[in-house]
Amino acid sequence: MIKLAEHWKDFCVLATGNGYKLERWKDILLLRPDPQVIWQAQRDLFAYPGLDAVYHRSEKGGGSWEFLRPLPESWEISYGELTFKVKPMGFKHTGLFPEQAVNWERTGALIRAAREQGRRPKILNLFAYTGGATVAMCKAGADVVHVDAAKGMVERAGENARLSGLTSGIRYIVDDCKKFVLRELRRGNRYDGIVMDPPSYGRGPGGEMWKIEEELFPFVKLCGELLSNEPLFFLINSYTTGLQPTVLENILTLGLGGRGGTYEAYEVGLPTGEGIALPCGAGGMYHV
Predict the structure, then answer these.
(1) Which of 89, 181, 182, 214 has the CA that lies 20 to 30 A from 271?
(2) Does residue 236 fall inside a structural domain?
């Protein structure tokens, strides 16, 4: 099952093919590589009218942007009440993953339902990057603790929060996620929801190693101890190639010790101008 982020107005995938996706970010057109796009393009994407920039992969790894016309260093796009800063960055990124609007909607609905019952949910967002989920969940009415090992990404998350009109309700932490979780357990802190977007491979600020195949299950099990007595959700999102959605569902089912509730597996994706769905990652979710 694939869940599509279909409600964007400031973003869309115009066309795909031959390892690339052509995207409109507000009024700027970017052409970026996508390893999932192994089908033939219906037209020459590199000759698309108005194309502003192309990210070229390097055979040695990584790559670089080619700017076909002068662009602002960064610009803003909106999704409903949310506003985010985007900019061409290293490794083809822009600082935002639009397909995650699927999960913003799902967690937001659960948070708003809890607010209607008089609760102010407390949510932990791990490997939180530039804060798309953090901003969405805070806007829905939650207090969010945002944790990422990269100081620059945490600063960017704060900027996105301010752009979305949020001046409170978010606590920003620059730290290794596992170390932070262990400290929270010792402190006796608990959360009504947990969101994580773990990397395939990475290092913490102190050189801590992370390999998703070895670390994810024990880490989810550890994080399960942080859930409150009335949890709303536990969401894992992954972009690791070859990690199927059902793997995430299984990790949640076994790692959370059979808690009552619903366990789901799904892909997240984006609609494209050709009328097809572009897969963009895997999701596993536990919710009540």
Answers:
(1) 89
(2) yes
Q: Taken in order 35, 41, 43, 44, is the CA torsion positive or negative?
A: positive
Q: Is the pTM of this model over 0.90?
A: yes
pLDDT digits (tens, 9 = 90+) for 178-187: 999 999 999 9
Measured CA to CA, the distance from residue 59 to residue 40 in angstroms comes to 21
Domain end (from 56, 77, 92):
92
Each residue's pLDDT tens digit, 113-167: 999 999 999 999 999 999 999 999 999 999 999 999 999 999 999 999 999 999 9
Residue whose C-alpha is closest to residue 124's, from 66, 209, 193: 193
Q: Which residues pair with 283 in a beta bridge?
A: 237, 266
State which residues form the domain around 23.
7-92
| Whole-number Å distance between alpha carbons of 208 and 135 | 27
CB 13 within 8 A of CB 275: no
Among 38, 70, 92, residue at a domain's last position: 92
Q: What does residue 233 show for φ and ψ, rounded to 5 degrees? A: -165, 160
Q: How many separate domains does the chain show?
A: 2
Q: φ, ψ for residue 47 (rounded to 5)? A: -105, 15
* Backbone phi, psi, residue 158, to 5°: -65, -40
